[in-house]
């Protein structure tokens, strides 16, 4: 069909979350599988809303890898960019939100298959057919995935794709905060659309203020749209010519996992067929309202992928 393709590049993994809330990993009586990985969530968000999406990344040739490939397929995301490592296993994470509000993580990444994607394994035909190419930063952490990431980004750009970046900071993955900041900023000036959260804004600018001046200190000449998401306060947007905010929808939030990915997928699904939306404030605000609705819906259900909305669900919330 005539819909533009969103290609999302990076990691897909399984989070194991305790069956009961508020416990440490050691105290958990059992775990539930929650498939995710921000770039994979974004691809599924686009597809669930009726758009065309492909995911590019590497999985282990194991039970978990096959499960994840099946989830992409079932959700209508092209797996033409998927490769399977014959040695390393699919990435796994054990994650909990403890009673004191602290998150505790344990990763199976030593290295996991997703980190072993090589530049030679990239499906360049697929990548070059993208109208939007989206990525995070976890794939920047180690080689050979870092080189694959940089090459995929460059090829997509050369072929005319809009580059979209969500750093998706998960600090425990980096050896230090300093390295995380440096790696994220090392590809900062390539992206044309960047979405960060208020926490990431503070982290990247090493400040504790979330205001326009702090956000604009991250502006660069290739950038067309900078978005700062603010949870139940909605989002702020910055372009070369205008800036403003779009308020959130009021919902009963039970689990915010995946809200940002849902927001990004919804926005990319809107701009993929018409990049000029970014330069037209009323249409951009309309698209961001839709993205806020999608983010809000995702907070009303547990997990990320099961909580991503259809277009009908998003319209229903907007009409209310
Ligand atoms: P991230 O997951 O990247 O931290 P946010 O949590 O800010 O991103 O969520 C992304 C978007 O989802 C927000 O801009 C907002 O529109 C929506 N959202 C998130 N949390 C809520 C909430 N509690 N109530 C309503 N909308 C929310």
TrEMBL record:
Pathway listed: Glycan biosynthesis; starch biosynthesis
Origin: domain of life: Eukaryota
EC number: 2.7.1.4
Residue ranges occupied by any Carbohydrate kinase PfkB domain in the UniProt entry: 5-310
Keyword Kinase: yes
GO cellular component assignments: cytosol
CDD domains the record matches: bac_FRK
Reactions the enzyme catalyzes: D-fructose + ATP = D-fructose 6-phosphate + ADP + H(+)
GO biological process, one term: fructose metabolic process
Pfam families assigned to the protein according to its UniProt record, in alphabetical order: PfkB (PF00294)
DNA-binding found in the keyword field: no
Keywords of the record: ATP-binding, Carbohydrate metabolism, Kinase, Nucleotide-binding, Transferase
Record-level Gene Ontology MF annotations: ATP binding; fructokinase activity
Name of the top EC class for this enzyme: transferase
Family note: Belongs to the carbohydrate kinase PfkB family.
Primary role: May play an important role in maintaining the flux of carbon towards starch formation.
Name of this protein: fructokinase
